[in-house]
Fold:
Amino acid sequence: MANNNYDPYIRKPYELYIAGAWFVATATTFAGYIVLPGGNSMLIPWVCFGFMTLQSAAKGLDLIGRGKLGEMLTFLDVDKLLKLIKPERMWFGWGFDWTPIHTQRAVDYMLSGVKMSHDQEHPGSPWIHGLNMGKENEVLIPLKSLEGHTIMFGTTGAGKTRAYEVMVTQAIHRGDTVIMIDPKGDKELRDRMELECKRAGRDRSFLFFHPAFPRSSIRLDPMRNFTRTTEIASRIAALLPSQTGGSDAFTAFAFRALNLVAQGLLEKGKRPSIKQLRYFIEGGAESLLVDAIECHANRVDPDWKISAEPFFVKAKAGKAKKMETITNPDWLAIIEWYRTTWSNGPKGSEGIDGLLSLVEHNRMHFSKMIASLIPVLNMLTSGELGDLLSPDEEDENDKRPILDTSNIIAGKHVLYVGLDSLSDSIVSSAIGSIVLADFASVAGMIYNSGNKPGRISMFVDEAAEVVNLPFIQILNKGRGAGFQVVMATQTLPDIVARLGDEARARQVVGNCNNLITLRIKDGDTQKFVVETFGQTWIKTVQQSISNAVNSSENIINYSGNSGQSLTFGEHDLFPQHLLGHLPNFHYIASIAGGRVIKGRLPIITH
Structure:
């Protein structure tokens, strides 16, 4: 049978008054034992009185100890951190499991009227962490639970980057493939990753990509991995501004143009790159079409030029079909020959047929339809960034290593991608989206092959700046390829604004089985968090007072009554407004399986 007695967590220590009374009684009996005749008979009451004094005093002192403050800030050396790590567990600070008991204590604390904030220098209310009577243990989260991906909320300065340091350090020492996508470009986090690679004996594993530091950055080819050319087109088309989720006519036309150019490059035997896509989209694909036809014809029929000879003669005589952008007679002859003899036939190529229609498309209308595509291609190929994202393997003067997401994973590297969003948010967002799309493609290849390369720990800071549909696919299906994603953002509306659709934003956060929340101020995000934690029942006391006056036969009767009842009511497991009172580096987390943890993190030192 449940215990319905209600004893507030925070109240005046009345037991100390009782202990004082018992102490007086004890002292009196002790005096009687010493002074009065026959005092031996008072020994037993004296012992009983003494016991009651101690019992009441202990209860009162326990009440005084309640409401104690939790720890605010702790520094932890890396060597000590590494000793705390357990196999198949991620160490995540100190804390305790948050239960309905702590909800009751939190409500009692707030109803007591005590001061909520205790330190103007450090924001937040440390008493929240003290609700476990000041006791805490090491928080160890099973790595199996993290396979369901994790989302972390936290306002500016609440401790998201320092939380990443704790997680990334352990991932490096576990031997994981580690990918950190950091739009801000936090230098301390970058230095931490490089330092831990050296400490773990993985000096050659660390890779650094940053558009603001091209000389020390690796060259990263985000177009190298694909199974179909439509994947390449999708990565670029996803960056185009669209009001209809990528289905409007301009985006569809740009997608088709990119796909056809990519197919033409493959027919020619060249791997598509962003620079090459820009060259043939912006300058015209006539030369690419001719090269693609020649390469295709040489593979299908090495003697094709014999049948094409009359077309060369006709072109030189000026009788070939005129095309508004082609003046080279040989080009005209090859195109006319292909159109007349092989196009839409068994010897033809669907890719070349599509590229032919693209070349013959009205140039004025073509320019209007790709007006939004050209700026995207320009910003990804301009200056030093062009060499970083479209590396030239034949350039012997450039000694910077060339890598792609596939060999980064195969080599179990530790990759830090800084995007320099403070200097150029548009370009940084585009780079991040393309890199994530490439990782999604590689995840699909791994999933299809069934050959997992081991655990791949992916961390995405300020995820609202780079999240896209391929990233949603990583969250949906990346677990089967070994991906464990931890994404961080400040608020839920940031993701809604990025995707332009609340349903898609909910899809992103819904794919994360684990939720870590540092201090957050946004009301919508707070509501989402407390919904995730769920509800519980707490005890509340209701008091009633009434009085009445009745007059009968000149007699006035006064009556009154007062009552008190104990009721149970539903309440958020973690009070919503307390999410805005968490101190820096303090968090509340929901782990896969329903476990709720109140914890705090250290600042890692060298």
Remarks:
- The first strand starts at residue 75 and ends at 77.
